[in-house]
């Protein structure tokens, strides 16, 4: 939802948004309000955080949620999940060096998460992988850096038995873990635990 009367620079936006309970992004200098997610969305975010946290190298990386990310001269996004290098100041209002970004689609975010954000995120020099996860079916879109660039399009991953191969970070994310408990009221007994 656009807040058309509000246009800001990044510093003003970070101060303004930090004083509010609602979630906002700055897109091209314009303030955009984020829609509150559904329970299924929140479950997938929780599962992604758990799955990533059980696989990353904790000597160099950490998993964060809903942290502002600098994606351009007039744009600050708030991805659902990030993997960032250790060392980011705890008092910082945003990060600019994510190595992995994950977004969970909602009814209103599909064209943005699979459109505008792809262009913005894939330009980040630090980014190694961008994962977009559907909310209503076990499906994901994955862009992975190979050398200096990303492939022209995403790898599409479908089905609970599939995995999302995050090669540059050295692990796979099983779709069964990402979608555990999402469509059955939160029960998590069907997904194998990470080892």
Write out the CATH superfamily name: tt1808, chain A
Task: Please bin the fraction of helical residues.
Answer: 10-25%
CATH architecture annotation: Alpha-Beta Complex
Q: How many DSSP H or I helices?
A: 4
Instruction: State the name of the first-level CATH class.
Output: Alpha Beta
The rounded Rg comes to 16 Å
Strand content: 25-35%
Helices and strands in order:
Elements: E1 2-7, H1 10-18, E2 24-27, E3 30-33, H2 39-53, E4 61-65, E5 69-72, E6 75-77, E7 81-85, E8 100-104, H3 110-122, E9 129-133, E10 139-146, E11 149-150, E12 155-158, E13 163-166, E14 171-174, H4 175-178
Parallel strand pairs: 8-9
Antiparallel strand pairs: 1-3, 2-3, 4-7, 5-6, 7-8, 9-10, 10-11, 10-12, 13-14
List keywords for this structure.
195 residues; alpha+beta; tt1808, chain A; seven-stranded mixed beta sheet; 4 helices; 21% helix; globular; disordered C terminus
Short recap of the structure:
The chain has one domain: tt1808, chain A. The protein contains 4 helices and 14 strands.
Characterization of this structure:
There is one protein chain. The chain is α+β, with helices and mostly antiparallel strands. The chain has one domain (37-178): tt1808, chain A. It is 21% helix and 32% strand. It has 4 helices and 14 strands. Strands 4, 7, 8, 9, 10, 11 and 12 form a 7-stranded mixed β-sheet that branches. Strands 1-3-2 form a 3-stranded antiparallel β-sheet, with helices on one face. Strand 9 and strand 10 form a beta hairpin. The longest helix has 15 residues, at 39-53. The radius of gyration is 16 Å and the shape is globular. Mean pLDDT is 89; it is low at 190-195.
């Amino acid at each position: 939802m656009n807040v058309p009367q509000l246009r800001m620079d990044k510093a003003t936006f970070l101060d303004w948004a930090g004083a509010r309970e609602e979630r906002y992004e700055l897109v091209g200098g314009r303030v955009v309000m984020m829609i509150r997610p559904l329970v299924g969305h929140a479950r997938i975010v929780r599962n992604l955080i758990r799955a990533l946290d059980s696989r990353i190298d904790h000597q160099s990386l950490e998993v964060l949620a809903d942290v502002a990310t600098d994606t351009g001269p007039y744009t600050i996004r708030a991805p659902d999940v990030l993997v960032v290098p250790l060392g980011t100041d705890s008092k910082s209002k945003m990060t600019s060096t994510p190595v992995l970004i994950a977004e969970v689609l909602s009814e209103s975010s599909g064209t943005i998460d699979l459109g505008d954000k792809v262009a913005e995120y894939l330009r980040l020099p630090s980014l190694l992988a961008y994962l977009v996860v559907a909310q209503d079916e076990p499906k994901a879109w994955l862009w992975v850096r190979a050398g200096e660039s990303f492939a022209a399009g995403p790898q599409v991953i479908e089905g609970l038995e599939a995995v999302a191969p995050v090669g540059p970070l050295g692990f796979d994310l099983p779709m069964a873990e990402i979608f555990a408990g999402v469509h059955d009221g939160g029960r998590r007994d069907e997904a194998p635990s990470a080892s």
